[in-house]
Structure formats: C-alpha cells, structure tokens
Design goal:
Protein name: DUF7144 domain-containing protein
Number of domains: 1
Keywords: Membrane, Transmembrane, Transmembrane helix
Domain DUF7144: 22-132
Pfam families: DUF7144
Number of helices: 4
Structural class: mainly alpha
Number of strands: 0
InterPro entries: DUF7144
Helix content: 55-70%
C-alpha cells in the first residue's frame, strides 16, 4: 500500500480560489485604508493636492475628501466580509472597486500619481473577485458556507 497521499486535483483548485479571494480582501482593505487617509487629507485641505482651475469635473477639495473617505470606509468594511467568504461581499467588492476607479479617474488632476495607483489597485481587486471560481473554498478544500457566485 502506498504511504504517500496525493490530494485530489479539486483541493488545489479550492486552495487557489481561497487564496485569490484573500488577495482581493487584502488589496481592497489597503485601498480602503488609503482612501480614508486621502479623504482626511483632502478634508483638512492639505497642501499635497494640486489645484486645477479648468477641470470639467471640478469639485471642492473638501467634497472630494468626503467622497474618498466614504468609499474608503465602505471598501474596508466589505474587505472584512471578503475575509469571511461572504457572497454579498464578493458582489459588493466588485461594485466598490468600480466606484473607487471612477472617483480616482475624476480626481486625476488633484493627485495624479496616486489616482493612477488606486485605479490599478482597484482593477486588480475586480480581476481577483471575478476570476475566482464560483465554488470558493478555504485552503483545506472544504466548501465555504453560504451561497457563492
């Protein structure tokens, strides 16, 4: 009898899916924290931001601060749901990451390099949440609870 045990191919798939979900949760929590910090800086009218008087989507810097602060808080909360493998968090995570992309696109003139970084980071979150198979599972290969995508 063979003493070595080879795990079934499906457990490798489950481990990969769980790892991708955890990656998305970490990236979304980082995007949320950074959005919160950016929002606080803008509300305090820090001198880090560039002023562009002739921008089509012109908002007051404080207005942008509140938008980024609220999106950051929601993104951070949704990332906690992703860590728990909640199906609602997967759908909401995709939506919040899309809103973060839109908000950062619209605020490109105020903080260009940071906006591009946040757009890329949120795009990676969307990719990770969309690519993981529907039957997510934890690393041990056991299916997670709840309804999955």
């Amino acid at each position: 009898m063979n003493a070595t045990h080879t795990p079934p191919a499906s457990s490798a798939k489950y481990a990969w899916a769980g790892g991708l979900r955890a990656f998305a949760a970490v990236m979304l929590s980082l995007a949320g924290l950074l959005g919160i910090f950016r929002g606080i800086m803008a509300i305090a009218e820090d001198e880090v931001f560039v002023t562009t008087p002739d921008y089509v989507f012109k908002f007051d810097l404080t207005g942008w601060g509140w938008i980024h602060l609220c999106l950051g808080i929601v993104a951070l909360l949704v990332s906690f749901g992703l860590f728990q493998a909640a199906a609602w968090a997967r759908y909401t995570g995709i939506g919040i990451a899309a809103l973060v992309i839109i908000a950062n696109f619209l605020s490109l003139p105020y903080y260009p390099w940071w906006s591009v970084i946040m757009i890329v980071m949120s795009g990676i979150v969307i990719w990770a949440l969309c690519v993981a198979p529907a039957d997510d599972a934890d690393v041990s290969g056991r299916p997670t609870g709840g309804r999955q995508l």
